[in-house]
Design goal:
Layout (H helix, E strand, L loop, with lengths): L5 H4 L3 H7 L1 H12 L10 H11 L3 H10 L4 H6 L2 H7 L4 H11 L3 H20 L3 H10 L7 H13 L1 H5 L1 H21 L3 H13 L3 H7 L16 H6 L5 H11 L14 H8 L19 H30 L14 H7 L3 H9 L14 H6 L7 H13 L14 H7 L3 H9 L4 H4 L2 H8 L9 H12 L21 H7 L3 H9 L5 H6 L1 H12 L6 H11 L6 H9 L1
InterPro entries: Ankyrin_rpt, Ankyrin_rpt-contain_sf
Keywords: ANK repeat, Repeat
């Protein structure tokens, strides 16, 4: 006999199981039966052997169905092993498996082989075959070791991780086939792995089924998340009903994810309270059906009830956490995360339960800095209430980030005038931290692009307060671009609408205009021909601002208009 080749001896286990299954099956058949038509084999086994080796699986089904093939004959033909490695339509696979396991005698004879084939299919990511096998057979997992092996292979399969829908199909098939054995299993690894898998796949009904086994809900899965973490990340309303159940079954709210997020960080990212609008009270008309009005009212009331229910649930979750100010690896607290994700209602809940508002992230930005950048936060009343809560929890209105920006800086950059006025009322220091360039380049410059009238009124009111004028500056600072007054910047940048508003609003800019007399001489010709200030207004402006030394071109142009 010729010696075995070195290549065959060095073949890895996975090559034997997956890559060279056909070759191995041929060798096994040859070793067991040098002649596939050996007269020692039953006639049915010979037919099955020939049909399967020829790839004629329709004939295999017919032979099992019509011929008198014993379970031992099926076993001797290595039919299951060949079927697992073949490319066959899954409907045909199910038909063949149903015929094979149609009797209790077949089940008893083939069970051990079936378990081995099932594990090999899982090893080779042959999940479609495994699904067909599980859905057409019964009671294959008498051995808990085999069940645990399949479960672990499901959890580690990269193919299933990349295809969650296939993963759910495999999970459902396994649960349908062996749910009682899973529940009765004395190996906690089965339940612990499956409950993590079910949570990852958002199969929360299966999670509830597995809770009767008392699994460990605080283990972290391959992504560093616990079952509670997964539940908080659940995108639908099942979170609302299942959170108390999971907490009652031992889920720990203090466990952090692998990335360092607490349960509150995840809640701030994924759970928002959808506040409903007030019920619509539309007048009766031919175009408005009263039934539609009633329907709208019912829907609004339902949304309001759902929002209140979720608010109470989140309040309970916050109350169960000992430290509301834990920071992640970027320095974000749950409060800062809520601000960054526009989760205003959750921010309010955190503040009401004692969370601090003076903690800053790695960029030295507090909650107020984040709010200043949110142009969508335009509800004046909600803004006032939230800022008041932040200030009561230690927020500093004059703190700066690593780039030197104060909260006021950021409100001007984002044109958040509602928050700007509110911060001024709360004691922010505009003279110390305000850069006029932001108004000229970002705020007043918007006039040339047709800003909203309400926004323009806000700008004018702020100008009238004198909050954008830098008074009593040193002469040696006049050349500093960032410290220049709004008037100087308006002239230098030829921002004509801005300069007009500055003058019309009586901003204290007389000294700047005198200092810029030479500049105005060169620019006012282009500037003033756009202005429309009548004689009375010009006289008022001259008296209030004492523009004695302003270039005469300005006053002459104003008088003519």
């Amino acid at each position: 006999m010729a010696p075995l080749s070195l290549g065959l001896l060095q073949t890895t286990d996975r090559d034997v199981i997956c890559g060279r299954r056909d070759h191995v099956m041929d060798n096994l058949t040859q070793v067991q039966h040098d002649d596939p038509h050996d007269s020692s084999l039953p006639e049915g086994a010979v037919l099955l052997n020939s049909a399967s080796e020829a790839g004629n699986w329709h004939l295999v089904r017919d032979v099992i169905s019509d011929a008198d093939v014993s379970p031992s004959g099926i076993r001797q033909s290595f039919l299951l092993q060949k079927l697992e490695s073949a490319t066959v339509d899954h409907h045909l696979v199910r038909d063949i498996l149903k015929e094979i396991f149609s009797s209790e005698a077949s089940v008893r004879t083939m069970k051990s082989i079936a378990q081995d084939v099932l594990i090999k299919a899982a090893h080779c990511d042959n999940w479609e075959f495994l699904i067909d096998f599980l859905l057409t057979t019964e009671s294959l997992f008498d051995d808990e070791t085999s069940l645990l092996s399949v479960v672990r292979l499901m959890a580690s399969s990269q193919m299933l991780q990349a295809n969650p829908f296939l993963h759910m199909d495999v999970f459902s098939a396994l649960w349908k086939h062996a749910n009682q054995k899973i529940i009765d299993s004395k190996d906690n690894g089965v339940q612990n792995t499956l409950v993590q898998m079910a949570a990852e796949l958002n199969m929360w009904s299966r999670v509830c089924d597995l809770l009767v086994t008392k699994p460990d809900l605080n283990l972290l899965d391959r992504e560093g998340l616990s079952v509670l973490h997964r539940l908080v990340m659940c995108p639908d309303s099942r979170f609302d009903s299942l959170l108390p159940v999971v907490l009652e079954n031992g889920a720990d709210v203090h466990i952090k994810t692998k990335k360092g997020d607490t349960i509150l960080h995840l809640t701030a990212k994924h759970q928002k309270i959808t506040t409903s609008l007030p019920p619509l009270h539309l007048p009766d008309s031919k175009d408005q059906d009263k039934r539609e009005q009633a329907k709208t009212k019912i829907l609004e009331e339902y949304r309001s009830q759902c929002a209140e229910s979720k608010r109470q649930l989140l309040a309970k979750l916050i109350s169960s956490c000992q430290n509301l100010d834990d920071q992640d690896d970027l320095g974000n607290t749950a409060m800062i995360v809520a601000a960054k994700t526009d989760n205003w209602e959750f921010m309010k809940l955190l503040l009401e339960h004692g969370a601090r508002a003076d903690i800053v992230d790695l960029y030295q930005r507090s909650v107020l800095h984040i709010l200043a950048t949110k142009q969508t936060f335009t509800d004046a009343l909600a803004c006032r209430n939230l800022v008041a809560l932040c200030l009561s929890r230690g927020a500093e209105v004059n703190s700066r980030d690593v780039y030197g920006n104060s909260v006021l800086h950021l409100t001007v950059q984002s044109r958040h005038w509602i928050l700007f006025e509110l911060l001024i009322d709360c004691g922010a220091e505009p003279g110390h931290i305000f850069l006029p360039r932001y108004f000229v380049s970002s705020g007043l410059h918007s006039v040339t692009h047709g800003c909203e009238s309400a926004e323009l009124d806000t700008l004018i009111s702020l100008l009238e307060l004198g909050l954008v004028s830098r008074q009593n500056h040193d002469e040696d600072e006049d050349d500093d671009e960032d410290l220049a007054s709004p008037t100087r910047l308006a002239v230098e940048t030829k921002n004509i609408p801005a300069l007009k508003i500055l003058i019309e609003c009586d901003v204290s800019c007389n000294s700047e205009l005198r200092a810029l007399n030479a500049d105005i001489k060169h620019t006012c010709t282009d500037t003033l021909n756009i202005f429309s200030i009548n004689t009375k207004e010009a006289a008022r402006t001259q008296q209030s601002l004492r523009l004695d030394n302003v270039h005469p071109l300005f006053l002459s142009q104003a008088s003519r208009n």
